[in-house]
Amino acid sequence: MRTRVPERLLTIVEEIDAHGSASLTRLTVLKKWFEHPGRLPAFGLWVAKRAAARKGKTKDEAGALLDEARALLGTTATRESFQHSVDLGAAKLLRDRARDFQNKFEDRRWGPVRIIPCPLLLLVEEGLTLYLGTPASPSGGYKLATNFCQHYDPRYGSNLNGPSRTKIMEIIRFMFTQEATEEDEER
């Protein structure tokens, strides 16, 4: 089912082009898109694959967990690759191990804060959580999208800017592919 949400995301890209940044809350338009059945798990799996496929200087246990994610999820994000299912048991085990690895908290004045030494591993964890359907809510998809897209720039803070533009365009391509797949399945 074709929606107008990708066009609304394009207005965010235009705002980044014109002003240098946009608020993360602009991505709330995704919540409506995620209400359609099957989109949250597909998006979660897609983000987990994208995060696992990124090359970086991650070492030690985080690097080993990302290597496991690459082996389980693959490293390509084609239409066919994010439509196929991943072994649920292995996905749950990997998600739990990633969460346990980054399950350290520091007490701050306003309360405990989770310490995330590897943001890519957090994206894999959150993506697999959506894929597994626990919890499966449009708000979870929005949260994953903001974590995927946000970028820190000293001029604008942590919001949508510079590199976020490319990530939003990737999400738009994903959305078009997902909607086309849904139309094919309806026929």
Which key features would you list for this structure?
187 residues, single chain, three-stranded antiparallel sheet, 8 helices, mainly alpha, globular
Describe this entry's structure for a reader.
- The protein is mostly helical.
- It has one domain.
- The chain has eight helices and five strands.
- The protein has a three-stranded antiparallel β-sheet. Strands 2-3 form a two-stranded antiparallel ribbon.
- The chain starts with a helix and ends with a helix.
| Number of separate strands | 5
Q: Tell me the number of helical segments per DSSP (H or I, 4 or more residues long).
A: 8
- List low-pLDDT spans: none
Structural class: mainly alpha
**Average pLDDT for all residues:** 89
What is the N-to-C succession of helices and strands? HEHHHHEEHHEEH
Report helical residue fraction. 55-70%
Radius of gyration: 17 Å
User: Taking strands numbered 1, 2, ... along the chain, how are they ordered across the largest sheet?
Assistant: 1-5-4
Number of self-contained structural domains: 1
Through-space gap between termini:
11 Å
Please report which band the strand proportion falls in: under 5%, 5-15%, 15-25%, 25-35%, 35-45% or over 45%.
5-15%
**Sheet with most strands:** 3 strands, antiparallel
Which outline best applies? globular
